[in-house]
Amino acid sequence: MPALPAAFEARMQDQLGPDWAAFAEALNSPAPVSINYNRAKTEAPIYEGSPVLWNRTAQYLPERPSFTLDPHFHAGRYYVQEAGSMFLAYVVEQLRQEQDFSTALDLCGAPGGKTTVLLNALPDECIVVANEVIKSRYAILRENLAKWGRANVIATHADSERFSPLARWFDLVVVDAPCSGEGLFRKTPGATKEWNPENVALCESRQQNILDHTLPLIAPGGILIYSTCTYNEGENDDQVARILEKGGFETVSFDLPEDWGIMPTGLGYQFYPHRTRSEGFYLAVLRKEGKATNWSTKTPLRYFTKVPKATEQAALSWLDPEAQLNILTTPKGQLYAVPEGALPLLSILSQSLPRLDPGTPVGLMKGKHLIPDHALSLSLHLHPDTPVADLDKDTALDYLRKAALPARPGQKGWHLMRYDGWGIGWGKMLPNRVNNYFPNHLQVRMSLP
């Protein structure tokens, strides 16, 4: 690892005292590899490994495999994620013992790790909004949400201030704030070159701005979870103290097993690589004062509209009837499958945000027939009678590379291309070939080692 910035090193020596030597040694050791399984797609671990203590669905791997060459990864059966950040799963699990959550917001959502943890940890009926302000990162967020396969999520692309019409709407808000990234020094050595005290101060200012826009969004009795991937108290406890000084919030604490190695800071919890198998993650939990109230709206949908009956029937024929999803369309004809419970929230979001993608993208109508969206192949809500083509690993990798596939006599029309029981995309069977509809921008270009 490159040399640590002198100012960072001096501050951490003061912060850690006698622990500094162990911390510095840990930064020069290999970073652990961990994944979080999609609870709806994986009943048993795919890999050999050991458990992540604070997340029931997570696992450390003994070494880093080639995830790109694993069809399970493309099917959305797991997400590659830093272990410390999955502490969110434990926190939500503990909170759910005392209260229910019907609406959640992941305000700084890309690339999607925290949102997938929420989708694993929250009830299926909870509507989760996952937001990202940077356009390129928003595209990545949408891809990872599609892999998770759930319709109870709304992806949004907006600055935090655009959410102001949703004051007091969310039972749970997660702010994994943009930060100086000190906790990534081991995992991303180049991050040390970007670190400087001026950038730390800029991050603190940005975090304050985001939190100022966030606090009004939380319903009375609701929860704010604030996190960073840094060690800096100015970006961590000091931000929490600032919220408490404003009034109206109180911190929530947990009794953690001592052998987990997670350090209480007074207002939150800090992960250090010499004490936990993780990087530098920080998390704090605050509860807003007051009693929860039920919110509803009569605001009409904007941009999204209900579809004609024939289009609705065509789209629903691809979906599991038990999911009871609504079909919406955009002016461009893109169809989405959305739970009934998402419509009130979607009504307000569609009035105030510049870009959002609700539920499961279903596809486009071409005449009387549906051209299915790639996201639909990954959905948990596909009709159980959807025609399938099961692939072995080599053929699945050929499919993911957009290679030509051998014809399948006797099969015709759209088929779900499936590996180990889970969809990875669409193929259209013709008499002498299979048309490969895997998206070009997701094409695997890596070869076997």
TrEMBL record:
The alphabetized UniProt keywords are: Cytoplasm, Methyltransferase, RNA-binding, S-adenosyl-L-methionine, Transferase
> What positions does UniProt annotate as the active site of this protein?
C229
Which InterPro entries does the record associate with it? Methyltr_RsmF_N, MeTrfase_RsmB-F_NOP2_cat, MeTrfase_RsmB-F_NOP2_dom, Nol1_Nop2_Fmu_2, RCMT, SAM-dependent_MTases_sf
Q: SUPFAM superfamilies given for it? A: S-adenosyl-L-methionine-dependent methyltransferases (SSF53335)
GO biological process entries: RNA methylation
Q: Does the keyword RNA-binding apply?
A: yes
SAM-dependent MTase RsmB/NOP-type domain sequence ranges = 1-289
Superkingdom in the source lineage: Bacteria
Q: Name one GO molecular function term.
A: RNA binding
Where, by residue number, does S-adenosyl-L-methionine bind? E132, D159, D176
The reply on keyword S-adenosyl-L-methionine is: yes
Q: Report the family membership.
A: Belongs to the class I-like SAM-binding methyltransferase superfamily. RsmB/NOP family.
**Name of the protein:** SAM-dependent MTase RsmB/NOP-type domain-containing protein
